């Protein structure tokens, strides 16, 4: 056989071999592609399941039965829980501390995102209807909102506003969209006050900052072109606590106080509203750990927050001494309590289990001070208070404070307008616009604007 024949046969074998190898590689490639595709499918199936479980966990929370926009409320609750869990994780990782600058910045971002859909809110948005000045008054940061519609008037109305946030979080920035809306639609000048925070600055520092601003403004009414009979203070939650305290101290300078969801006493944390609303927003707005805000403001260890929650912070003798001022059988309106049985169990002077005498002695002077807890004011002091516009919400855990304060002010002879929203909850008024707009929020803010226009 000549060499040419051998070369031909060899080339044929090599060609067949190459074809076999190529076929094997193709099959192998197809096999691994199949395995990779199946692995991706399993991975994304697991991811989708985990996300579904995550969403279910976050949205599977009791919401007020009376509110029609249940999904929106669930999203609000989920957002607040996400904030709490995020900060908790950052603290555990050693990246920040509770009530740090970062914590407070993230809190503002979450609030603004809920209100407007953007974590920076409206700060980057020009507003042709308002003149906005971020400045300082007596060393305290304030934002002054002057509506263009009333800018040239010499007898303008003013509302000096104190934000909520447990004396420890939130700011004038997180309230900016809401305050813009109120100023724009009411024509009222609003000064939003960024007082110092607890726990770095416990009582009386935050209150003193607010008093300084009110005193400066009322001493310079001509500079601000304000009618002396149209000066109001206001706030929500603990901001309403500050507004009520300022009204008791500077009653001769103030025409009206606007108290939205006021927190007004440190005496009883077993009220009907605490009890029947604890199941709603339990891990967000109504979290038991929120009583740390109380210990922050009072300047005591946060380890005591559980004692407050269990009502062990006040001795029986002290409770009986001041019981009438917070007695729900006297001051609570039965029609505003959903579970009527709770009113039968209320006893503000009742037994205290495991009373903490040391803690009670430490805080007695503070929690009975009407400038710390306005609900503890006597009838004489309340009789001097300016007219009050009080907002309470049915599903708010501090609902009863506002209801009782309205009753006590009225009995003392002070004019009171009490607006109660059965479907509302704590900070419900944050959502009169934006992606999470709620009907009850629209109503609260509309009624407030009407009162600013017509009662001042």
Describe, in plain words, how this protein is organized in 3D.
This protein is an alpha/beta fold and 456 residues long. The chain has three domains: 1-60; 70-111; 125-454, Rossmann fold (3-Layer(aba) Sandwich), CATH 3.40.50. It is 48% helix and 13% strand. It has 17 helices and eight strands. Strands 1-2-4-3-5-6-7-8 form an eight-stranded mixed sheet, with helices on both faces. β3, α4 and β4 (189-194) form a beta-alpha-beta unit. α2 runs antiparallel to α3 and α4 packs across α17 (439-454). It is globular, with a radius of gyration of 30 Å.
Count structural domains: 3
In helices, the fraction of residues equals 40-55%
| Low-pLDDT segments, ≥5 res | none
Distance between the termini: 120 Å
What is the gyration radius calculated from CA atoms? 30 Å
Q: Describe the sheet with the most strands.
A: 8 strands, mixed
CATH top-level class of the largest domain: Alpha Beta
How do the strands of the widest beta sheet line up side by side? 1-2-4-3-5-6-7-8
């Amino acid at each position: 056989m000549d060499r040419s024949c051998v070369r031909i046969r060899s080339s044929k074998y090599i060609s067949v071999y190459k074809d076999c190898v190529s076929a094997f590689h193709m099959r192998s490639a197809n096999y691994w592609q199949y395995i990779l595709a199946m692995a991706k499918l399993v991975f994304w199936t697991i991811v989708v399941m985990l996300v579904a479980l995550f969403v279910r966990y976050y949205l599977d929370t009791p919401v007020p039965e009376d509110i029609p926009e249940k999904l929106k409320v669930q999203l609000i609750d989920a957002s607040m829980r996400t904030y709490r869990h995020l900060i908790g994780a950052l603290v555990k990782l050693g990246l920040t501390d509770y009530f740090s600058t970062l914590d407070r910045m993230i809190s503002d971002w979450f609030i603004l995102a809920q209100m407007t859909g953007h974590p920076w809110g409206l700060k980057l948005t020009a507003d042709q209807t308002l003149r906005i000045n971020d400045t300082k008054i007596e060393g305290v940061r304030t934002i002054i909102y002057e509506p263009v519609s009333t800018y040239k008037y010499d007898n303008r109305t003013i509302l000096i506003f104190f934000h909520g946030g447990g004396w420890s979080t939130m700011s004038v920035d997180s309230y900016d969209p809401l305050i813009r809306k109120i100023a724009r639609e009411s024509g009222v000048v609003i000064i939003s006050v960024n007082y110092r925070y607890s726990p770095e600055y416990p009582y009386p520092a935050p209150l003193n900052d607010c008093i300084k601003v009110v005193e400066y403004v009322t001493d310079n009414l001509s500079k601000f072109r304000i009618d002396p009979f149209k000066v109001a203070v206001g706030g929500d939650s603990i901001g309403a606590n500050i507004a009520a305290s300022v009204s008791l101290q500077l009653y001769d300078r103030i025409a009206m106080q606007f108290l939205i969801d006021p927190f007004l006493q440190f005496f009883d944390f077993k009220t009907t509203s605490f009890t029947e609303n604890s199941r709603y927003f339990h891990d967000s707005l109504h979290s038991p750990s929120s009583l740390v805000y109380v210990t922050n403001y009072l300047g005591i260890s946060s380890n005591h927050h559980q004692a407050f929650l269990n009502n062990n912070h006040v001795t029986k003798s002290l409770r009986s001494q001041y019981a009438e001022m917070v007695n729900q059988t006297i001051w609570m309106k039965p029609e505003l309590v959903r579970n009527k049985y709770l009113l039968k169990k209320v006893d503000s002077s009742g037994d205290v289990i495991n009373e903490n005498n040391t803690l009670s002695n430490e805080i007695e002077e503070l929690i009975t001070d009407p400038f710390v807890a306005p609900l503890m004011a006597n009838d004489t002091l309340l009789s001097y208070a300016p007219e009050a516009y009080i907002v309470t919400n049915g599903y708010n855990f501090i609902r009863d404070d506002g209801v009782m304060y309205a009753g006590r002010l009225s009995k003392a002879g002070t004019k009171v307008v009490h607006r109660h929203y059965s479907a509302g909850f704590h900070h419900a008024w944050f959502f009169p616009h934006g992606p999470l707009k709620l009907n009850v929020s629209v109503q609260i803010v509309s009624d407030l604007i009407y009162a600013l226009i017509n009662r001042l």
